[in-house]
Structures are given as structure tokens and as C-alpha cells.
Amino acid sequence: MLSNLDKAELLQQYEQIKAKGLSLDMSRGKPGSDVLDFSNGLLDLPGRDYKSANGFDCRNYGILDGIPEAKALFAPILGVNPDNMIIGGNSSLQMMYDAITREMLVGSWKGKGGNVKFICPVPGYDRHFAICESLGIEMLNVPLNENGPDMDKVEELVAKDESVKGMWCIPMYSNPTGTTYSDEVVRRLSKMNTAAGESFRIFWDNAYAIHHLTDTPDMLLNILDECHAAGNPDRVYMFASTSKITFPGAGLAVMAASDKNAAFVRKNMGFQTIGGDKLNQLRHVRFFGDYNGITKHMKQLGDVLKPKFDAVLEILERELTPHGLGKWHNPNGGYFISFDGNPGTAGRTVALCKDAGVVLTGAGATFPYGNDPEDRNIRIAPTFPPLDELRAAMEVFCVSVKLANCE
Ligand code: PLP
What we know:
Largest sheet: 8 strands, mixed
Structural class: alpha/beta
Number of domains: 2
Radius of gyration: 22 Å
CATH superfamily of the largest domain: Type I PLP-dependent aspartate aminotransferase-like (Major domain)
Shape: globular
Strand order of the largest sheet: 2-9-8-7-6-3-4-5
Strand content: 5-15%
CATH class of the largest domain: Alpha Beta
Helix content: 40-55%
Order of helices and strands: HEHHEHEHEEHEHEHEEHHHEEHEEH
Bound molecules: pyridoxal-5'-phosphate
Number of strands: 13
Number of helices: 13
Distance between the termini: 10 Å
């Protein structure tokens, strides 16, 4: 713990920072314009050549689940056969919401009313939790360990309660911890016995599947294949999007599932829409060319993002390690650094930052119902601010962590 002398000094430092009148936003995992610029080529596409490879006029209605070349382009991101792909609109989160409500209204959870529970590895993604909360789905916390969710706990929960129908997973460079699930965790998820039987679904949100920050990326086992091999072919819905690849507001969302699940999704999607934005699909296909083009593009983005992650890690290390304050990971990819302070300090740290002009993701946001039982986790989102602003914000963060601990 820091001494009183430190506290007086810290207060002085804090007041000096406050007097600067900063206004910095690190609240959401958004790309900065430096990253968005790499995709500007999309803005001139597809031009007047608006026909897909099979001659379809992409300006018109039709092709519910995406043009074949878009399915082929994005299938390797999820490691699936293009026939199992469905291209959506501009948001994978919307596809997840639809997948859940579809199961509830017309699928295998029909008639379960308010009796659907989800396993939620924590810390996790606030918007996943918000979907559950808005639909009255009870959330059960399971710790997210270094190799993925605590599988002993998961297996126990799914085996004993048939109302546990779903589970959120961000299997690669998880939001916010950067964790990638180990092969063993993926296998256990695909094999585990569930009281809900065939109606149990894993929502495999692979939002950061190819978002590497190093030349030695993490590897992830293909859960659709594992589920198939384990005799649970319909257990998983996979999702991804180009939100953190091209433009978050004007990208493409995709999902993949077993033949049976994909057919179920397509059938019901057909009541919602006549088809997605095929010009945007065509635009992405022409911009990237092939999967190799996506890989090259991601390397460019990673080269811009890596120094931002390095800056955060360097400042945390320099300012907090000597005082033994906090724990964090050095992720190989993704969009976040997850900070765990001493219990009872996260809310205060975020409030101190806010008063000094630095907005962070709210404390508690990484837990269901906004309730971090130990009040210690804070999600740091380094991607949006320019490097100099990020450094300034991290200095504020570290002073705030120290002050919160003194108090
Ligand atoms: N899933 C995860 C894990 C995310 O972190 C995000 C955005 O931050 C999303 C989904 C949102 O994706 P989309 O823009 O495709 O709706």
C-alpha cells in the first residue's frame, strides 16, 4: 500500500492534471481514423460494375444469405465451408440478438418463457450481457481463466440445470482479457453433457478471429468441427464481422452454423428480409480480392495498433508495477487490455479519471448486470485515441489507480 506522503504528492499531481482540462475518450473499442483510412478504397467500390460473379444484379432484391463470392471470402475467418455461411447486415451483434430471439420464439427454446439461463464467462462483453438482460435471460458468471472459461464450473452448471440453454464465448483475443481458448477448452465445450440436450447453444462470437498484434498469433481450434466429431453438430452458432477490419458502421456481419441450424436460420431470416446489402458484399470482395488480401490488410492495421498497446503496457509497468498495484495481460491480439486493480478500487478509479477528463468504460460493465462483485476490473480500450492522447490518458489512469488505492 502507498504511504501518506505518496498520497499528498499524488493529490498534487492529480490536481495538476485536472487543471489541464483534458477531454479524452477511451470508453469504447473503436478503431481510430488512422486505422479506418486503410479501408478508404472501399468508398470507390463497386463502381458501375454491380454484377456478382454469377451475373446477379447486386442492386436488386434477392440472394437472402449473401453472394457466393462473399461467403467464400469470409469462410476462412471462421474456418468453415462457404455453404455453412450466412452474410448479414452491418452488425454481428444484431445477428446474435436475432439468433437468440429466434430460438426463443420459434426454435428449440420456444415456450420456455422466462426460464432460459446463459453461462457468461467473466469479465466479458457488456453488450452480450445487455442482450440477455433485455430478454430476461438469467446470467450465470463463470471465471474466464488464462486458457478460457473455468470448464469444471461450466460442466457442472450445464449438467445440472436444463434451463441453462446458452453460453457466450469470445474464443479468440477475448473482450476484454485478450484470452484465447485452449484446444482442451474447445474440446470440452464441444463434448460436455448438457441437461438441455440438443437445445443447448454456444454463441461463438469470434469478433477478433484475425486481429493479431504479433507475428506469433494465438491459434484456435475449430469448434464446429469438434462439435460435429463429438456428436453435437448443432451446438454452436459462430459469428464474426468486418467491424474491426473495415468500417464498424458500414461493414459486413457473418455467421456460420451446421447444415441444420443454417437452414433454420435462413428459413426464418426470409421472414425478416429479402436480402442484405449485396453492393457492400461486392465492395468488400473487390477490395480484398481473396483471403490473402484480408491477411495483408490486417497486418497493416496491427502495425498501427501495436504501438498503442505497447504504450499502455509500458506506462502501466512503469507506474504501477513498482507499487505492486494491479494485474493485466499482454494480449497477442484483439482490441483491449483488461486491468484488475485491488478489490474495491475500480469504481473509484474510473470516477477519478472522469473528473480529470478521461472517460473509461464504466466499472462493472465487464460483468453481467453491471455488477463486478469485487469492483476491480477495468477495460482499457487503446485503439481509438492518437498515441499522444493515449499516453496522456494512461498517465491520468495510473495516478487515479494510485489515489484510489491510497483512499
Ligand atoms: N462482439 C464483440 C466481442 C465485440 O467486442 C464487438 C464490438 O466491440 C462486437 C461483437 C460488435 O460487433 P458488430 O459491430 O459486428 O456488431
